[in-house]
């Protein structure tokens, strides 16, 4: 009875007509709930905004603004509205807030003298909203994202995110998911698949939404994985699927769906997918078995954790059933014959001098570089490569998912003669574009933390940030200008902070990361007099600073 109630709640009890659309235009999605992203599941639906910024965003129902944040990365400008029915709606990547909310946020920005606000939590009655009220305008804030509206629905009490399609936010969709790859995995050293004990790609034959592969021979414990995507309506985006099921001889042995999950478990996506395969080929294969360290709550009806046990002399039919939210279905059929292998193609396990034991602290030092892994930073015991050559520390390849951050420490005494203050630790997996890592310094040590294995080095940055392309010239009249704009960039360690002033008073300049542009809205303050001095100070992550000063006139 309890099981029936739980299933009934998940399918029937979400209010279907309580929330309205957050935009006036038809819902066309560029991203679906639970879609596979780097290190996380997508937490909402991405609604296309016709490649435009500035569309009106409406409150989905009555409630009050419970949280606001302005950030350069992540959700950018975002509003959280709490509703009396126990749910919270989230609207992200906004270009601007609506009347009343915009002024509220700007007041805080001027008090903090900062574009980024951190989390703001208005009191319950401070910013009430009505269903259909314009609360914001769509945009593309929060990193290098295209114009769209990210929309979420959360349980207000638990903060669990729920698929908005369960609330009636569906789109036309009559196309079944596509399957692009099928993989088979021997689970233990004694397992065999086509006389191999290494993972294999199984060729697929397609007829409509049905896929088959040639009969394989196998023995022992094996698992499977599929690479799959879905299209919704006329949109060309390759979106995520809703559910994956596996049956063995007609009996369900594996099932997961993307109805709801919590942010805390989202990182376990790296155990749902074949992570080494993804890092090498940029292709996500979803396993139809559960890793022992995987704490995702999306699974149901697992038998032997989804691992198939093949016995010699027996025949099996494995079916993998993939559905989108509308129920459009694709199936993959895998015939298997249990057979002992006389000829065995084996893959020797990788071993090195450096082993990380999952439940132990591990620390390795070589040629002035130390790496330290806390307990439970890996999901299973692993051997890693570790070498230091020409100042570059190689900590294995970035093909092992980490649960916790590890620490990399460089002995900086070997760099005496260089300006230590202008050194920083960079990830140099991409030689052309070293990536700044938050570097801390203590005596003769420099250290950082990361969840990505690979190559790291100390890099020098002696260049000041660049300030260029203002929309005015020295001594120019700007009476007819609505905005003052100027661009900033930094070639190496990246911009850490900027401050702008007019007549020695701090002003709010919004930072567009994609255009590298700062913008000041002249409507923010009434300037006194006609002659004004603009000053901009920009610093990078190692302390190089550039200052720009210019005079303009405005009535």
Q: List how many beta strands DSSP finds.
A: 47
Stretches where pLDDT is under 50 for at least 5 consecutive residues are 1-10
Shape: globular
Strand content: 35-45%
Structural class by secondary-structure content? mainly beta
End-to-end CA span: 74 Å
* Number of helical elements: 4
Major beta sheet summary: 12 strands, antiparallel
Helical fraction: under 10%
Q: What does the average pLDDT come to? A: 94
Radius of gyration: 27 Å
Please give a structural write-up:
With 555 residues, this protein is mainly beta. Strand 20 and strand 21 (251-257) form a beta hairpin. The longest helix has 12 residues, at 101-112. The relative contact order is 0.09. Mean pLDDT is 94; it is low at 1-10.
Could you write a compact summary of the structure shown?
This protein is mostly beta strands.
Write the layout of secondary structure elements.
Blueprint: H1 2-12, E1 29-31, E2 36-37, E3 40-41, E4 45-48, E5 56-58, E6 63-70, E7 77-82, E8 87-97, H2 101-112, E9 118-120, E10 128-129, E11 134-138, E12 148-155, E13 161-162, E14 178-186, E15 192-193, E16 200-201, E17 205-207, E18 210-212, E19 216-229, E20 243-248, E21 251-257, E22 260-261, H3 269-272, H4 275-281, E23 286-287, E24 308-310, E25 315-323, E26 329-338, E27 354-356, E28 362-366, E29 369-373, E30 382-384, E31 386-389, E32 392-395, E33 406-411, E34 423-427, E35 435-436, E36 440-442, E37 445-450, E38 454-460, E39 466-468, E40 476-477, E41 483-489, E42 495-502, E43 505-507, E44 510-512, E45 517-521, E46 531-540, E47 545-553
Parallel strand pairs: 18-26, 19-26, 40-47
Antiparallel strand pairs: 1-4, 2-3, 4-12, 5-11, 6-7, 6-9, 6-10, 7-8, 8-11, 8-12, 12-13, 13-22, 14-16, 14-19, 15-19, 17-18, 19-23, 19-24, 20-21, 20-25, 25-26, 27-30, 28-29, 29-33, 31-32, 32-38, 33-37, 34-35, 34-38, 36-37, 39-41, 41-45, 42-43, 42-46, 44-45, 46-47
